[in-house]
Design goal:
The protein is α/β, with parallel strands linked by helices. It is 29% helix and 21% strand. The longest helix is centred in the first third of the chain and has 27 residues.
Length: 661
């Protein structure tokens, strides 16, 4: 047998492995006498596995007593979440009684080590060493490699650049057209919307899209909402199909693959069309000579060009500066690839920690909790702000929303920052600013994004210092015949001032207008005057749509439909305003002391904000409206904002939205 032979040579690693199987010498001898080689190897594997679980359980109890801000699920299978049932199993005494003289001493911690150690000598690091030794003795080198964290490189970091280049379509930039009538930089919603507008006004237009992704144009919003509600465990929906709120089913992609022309055939197609160069990026634009230079040096001349470069997810210093062996457990969430990766992790019962409280972070946390409601997956959400969606919702509604998110099963930890991130066995250890420690398998960073304007300096284009994005005029032109739309454009709103938006509706409408102005039918260019809307879903019970400036820093007036007398007979609630009908409402006025002398009037905390309208005010005028669980009223909200006027009774304005219907 392999271990007995190695013992004859006095290999220390093997002796350590056998000590894990049985600390008592007589127990070890008995095992060697009666066990076949296959049985011994299996027993060794089971012992190592049990030892690993014991180490993690003790680690959580002793080294990190504050590592559970929220209770664990009843029976978690996550590799870093030990459940009560597991702990009970681990507490059973071994069959072979241990004596103190046979116990393995714990090695001293290395100087300057940040790893904690347990008081009973069962620290995480020492346990790992014995486990690694056992795996090595059993010939399970892969297991030892896994416990040590591999080579410390993430999947993305370990990819050779040449492998990415090999996925480009076409393979060589020299195969791309040298001159095109319409060049669209970016393959997102704004770009594809511009193509549709171009094609509508120029039926035989030939459009080339330069995209640094390896997908055809697709929409992003369903990635954090509808796709999760339509998915089944272990299955990725074909073409990423999902159901819309109307009940109709559609794909995440705007059009199927056969809709697009190969870049090499674009100029030869008499009826025109759209071709997508996948895996390429534009490094520089020469607006004067109308030339775009790609990252491989390829130059393409254009007649009209659109910059729809979108935005890149922001990172936090703790994650950005983390060691390389930590990076493979940190991810962002932007693409279908990210959806597949995260779904696979959830299906494997891995614990997920969402960092961020905005649209993406809150939507994703709720979607994951809803998707995994029948499993034991641990979903955490941590952020520095006080409550979910705190930059958009008034304080009282933000806190009420957080309670609803928690009811879905999300462990919400507000008001904390991630100070340090380290690898912990197969997952991560997040050290928080409040002294707590969160153990998780994967961290998903959702803290906003910044406009992709890295080509601005070389191209001589203006970027807004405060908001980011390419500065454009009213017709969305950055320079002559060079337009910008979508997340990367910074435009001037005649009503609300200069703005940059990251909403799907804005990308679609601004892309459409840019496409129309690129064609310039009858020599006319239209100004961008659209008030963009957004929508969000936080689980099955909360959905809202907003338009205009919906910033919680502004004074807000919320008008909500209260429960009926029958529904609230046990609540002892009284309406805070008088009503001329049985349809009672409550008005909540949230004024900032620096903006007004009026003291804020807070709504009753027991109110159930199921349906209502929130008005955002500036200089007593409505500049933003948020419709809470009210739908198909955005057109009315847009009209009210465009009127640019003050209203004496916002309760009467709220009735226009039929909040009681």
């Amino acid at each position: 047998m392999i271990c007995t032979r190695l013992l004859n040579y006095k290999i220390p690693a093997c002796r350590q492995a056998m000590m894990i199987v049985g600390r008592n010498k007589s127990c070890l001898q008995n095992n060697l006498k009666i066990a076949s080689p296959l049985l011994l190897k299996r027993n060794l594997y089971e012992s190592v596995k049990k030892r690993a679980l014991e180490a993690r359980s003790k680690l959580k109890k002793t080294d990190y007593p504050n590592n559970r801000p929220c209770p664990d699920p009843p029976s978690s299978k996550s590799s870093l979440s030990s459940s009560p049932s597991h702990e009970k199993e681990h507490s059973k005494k071994p069959k072979c009684k241990q004596s103190s003289k046979d116990s393995v001493p714990k090695p001293a911690a290395a100087p300057g080590s940040t790893e904690s150690s347990s008081s009973d000598g069962s620290g995480g690091n020492s346990s790992i060493k014995w486990i690694v030794a056992a795996l090595a003795a059993a010939g399970l080198g892969g297991g030892a490699w896994y416990l040590l964290g591999g080579d410390g490189k993430s999947d993305d970091q370990s990819k050779d650049q040449s492998s990415l280049v090999s996925k480009r379509v076409p393979l060589n930039g020299s195969d791309l057209p040298k001159k095109v009538p319409y060049l669209l930089v970016g393959g997102g919603a704004a770009s594809f919307s511009a193509f549709r507008a171009i094609k509508s006004n120029d039926p035989k237009a030939k459009v080339l899209v330069i995209s640094n992704e390896f997908f055809k144009p697709y929409m992003r919003p369903p990635l954090s909402k509808e796709l999760w509600y339509a998915s089944e465990p272990g299955v990725v929906p074909k073409d990423y199909r999902f159901k819309q709120w109307t009940g109709a089913e559609r794909s995440l992609f705007f059009e199927p693959d056969e809709f697009f022309i190969k870049p090499t055939n674009l100029l030869d197609n008499p009826n025109g069309g759209i071709a997508v160069a996948q895996g390429y990026a534009v490094k520089k634009i020469d607006p004067k000579n109308r030339v775009a230079t790609l990252d491989d040096g390829t130059e393409i001349q254009y007649e009209k060009c659109l910059l729809a470069t979108g935005c890149t997810p922001k990172n936090l210093p703790a994650f950005e500066n983390a060691p390389k062996n930590v990076q493979d457990k940190i991810m962002f969430y932007r693409s279908p690839n990210d959806f597949e990766k995260l779904k696979k992790l959830v299906d494997e019962n891995k614990s997920i920690t969402i960092v961020g409280n905005g649209f993406l972070g809150s939507e994703l946390a709720c979607s994951l909790a809803t998707y995994s409601k029948d499993t034991n997956v641990k979903i955490n959400q941590i952020y520095a702000e006080s409550a979910n969606m705190s930059k958009v919702l008034p304080e009282y509604l933000s806190k009420w929303t957080t309670q609803k998110v928690e009811q879905l099963g999300v462990c919400v930890v507000p008001g904390v920052q991630v100070k340090e991130v380290n690898r912990e066995q197969s997952g991560l250890k997040l050290a928080l600013s409040n002294g707590q420690t969160v153990l998780t398998d994967v961290a998903v960073v959702c803290v906003g994004c910044e406009a992709n304007t890295n080509i601005a300096t070389l191209s001589g284009l203006e970027v807004d210092d405060a908001l980011g994005g390419f500065v454009v005029n009213a017709e969305l032109e950055a320079r002559q015949d060079l337009f910008a739309a979508g997340d990367a454009s910074c435009f001037y709103d005649p009503l609300l001032g200069r703005r940059r938006l990251e909403h799907h509706d804005h990308s679609v409408i601004s892309g459409r207008l840019a496409g129309e102005n690129m064609v310039g039918k009858d020599g006319i260019k239209k100004p961008y005057e659209h008030q963009s809307m957004f929508w969000s879903d936080l689980g099955p019970g909360i959905g809202y749509e907003g338009i205009g400036r919906t910033e919680s820093s502004l004074p807000t007036v919320g008008v909500f439909a209260l429960k009926s007398d029958e529904e609230r007979k046990d609540d002892h609630l009284e309406p805070t305003t008088e009503s001329s009908s049985k349809e009672t409402t409550t008005i909540a006025l949230e004024q900032k002391p620096k903006d007004t002398q009026t003291q804020p009037t807070k709504p009753n905390e027991e109110n159930d904000y199921q349906k209502g309208v929130i008005f955002y005010l500036q200089n007593d005028k409505i500049v933003g409206i948020l419709l809470w669980n009210i739908f198909n009223r955005v057109g009315l909200a847009r009209t009210i904002i465009n009127q640019n006027k003050s209203y004496e009774d916002l309760n009467e304005v709220a009735k226009l939205f039929e909040i009681h219907s």
